[in-house]
Write a structure and sequence with these properties.
The complex is a heterodimer of chains A (165) and B (140).
Chain A (H helix, E strand, L loop, with lengths): L1 H32 L14 H15 L17 H8 L9 H20 L1 E2 L1 H10 L5 H16 L4 E2 L8
Parallel strand pairs in A: 1-2
Helix pairs in contact in A: 4-5, 4-6
Chain B lengths: L2 H25 L9 E3 L4 E5 H6 L6 E7 L12 E8 L2 E7 L2 H7 L7 E6 L5 E7 L10
Antiparallel strand pairs in B: 1-2, 2-6, 3-4, 4-5, 6-7
The chains are: A mainly alpha (165), B alpha+beta (140).
Chain lengths: 165, 140
């Protein structure tokens, strides 16, 4: 009887140890499936276009003859429209002072229109004059800003009905 | 009854007989009159050129324009399309440099119906141009 009881106790302990080990293995397996570390999240908000403009401006100032050098920073995955626009543009080049000024002026034009809540005929003509000087990305940025303002009904179009530039 | 009176009666009779046929011909065929509409929440606008033009509203319009700039020494600028419209007091627009969108705008005609959507950033996402017989023609 004593031997049977001892055997039962030993069996129960062995089972408990096996269950513990099995539990540890399952836990390790679960940990192994989880990503080792959470991906870093960028909390800063940087406008790549503005950054590019500023870098270009600085480089142009340092080395004016480098105007046609290839752009060092390119978006990792450009949108189809961006990719298309840049394909057509040897504008993979440092921007000229003229185009940077036009970009600044065009943005100021939109800012002023937002403050006045009006896109007037004078704004239409001013932006039209800047358009040929803006590169593809700058044109896209400025027109999208204008579109967002119009669609949010933040500015009323008072000029020639359907001309925005 | 005199000779001229007989001719007049005959002409009048022929004219009266022709009226039902003329009426049927004028009413035949499906006709639509799609005025300019917009849903800003869905970023979706639509409208037929003829219907917008013939509308009693003095401000209603819809359409697209393609701007192609002279390319300077630095930039070989791609064309930019801008689609816009107005329905009541609501003006809307989208813009794109995508070649497929630009190609679609080239299919626009004076009697076409236009339907487009845009992204939150204001970029045209879809552009549908349809030319069907039921579209209203522009009345000058």
């Amino acid at each position: 009887m004593l031997a049977i009881a001892a055997s039962a106790v030993w069996q129960a302990r062995a089972n408990a140890r096996l269950e513990r080990e099995l539990g540890q293995l399952v836990t390790r397996l679960d940990h192994a499936r989880e990503p080792t570390s959470a991906p870093a999240q960028c909390v800063a908000s940087l406008d790549p276009t503005l950054l590019r403009q500023e870098v270009s401006r600085a480089l142009t100032g340092l080395c004016p003859s480098s105007v046609a050098q290839p752009r060092a920073i390119a978006p990792a995955v450009p949108s189809p429209a961006t990719a298309n626009a840049e394909d057509q543009s040897p504008a993979n080049a440092v921007k000229s002072d003229e185009s940077i000024k036009a970009f600044d002026d065009a943005n100021r034009l939109v800012d002023d229109a937002l403050a006045r809540h009006t896109w007037s005929q004078r704004d239409v003509e001013a932006l039209r004059g800047m358009m040929p000087v803006l590169d593809a990305q700058a044109r896209r940025d400025v027109l999208q800003r204008l579109a967002q303002a119009v669609n949010a009904q933040q500015i009323a179009v008072t000029g020639d009905s359907h001309k925005f530039f | 009854m005199g000779k001229w009176a007989k001719i007049s009666v005959l002409g009048l009779s022929i004219g009266l007989l022709a009226i039902p046929f003329l009426g049927k011909e004028a009413a035949a065929g499906l006709k639509s009159n799609v005025l300019v509409g917009v849903n800003l929440n869905d970023r979706h606008a639509w409208g037929a050129m003829g219907a917008a033009r013939n509308s009693s509203s003095l401000v209603e319009y819809i359409g697209c324009g393609v701007e192609t700039a002279w390319s300077s020494g630095l930039f070989n600028l791609p064309p930019v399309v801008t689609c816009s419209g107005r329905s009541g007091n609501t003006t809307f627009m989208c813009t794109s440099m995508d070649t497929k969108i630009i190609d679609a705008t080239r299919a626009l005609t004076a009697d076409a119906k236009l339907d487009f959507t845009w992204s939150p950033s204001g970029e045209c996402v879809t552009l549908d141009v349809s030319i069907y017989s039921d579209n209203a023609a522009k009345i000058p």
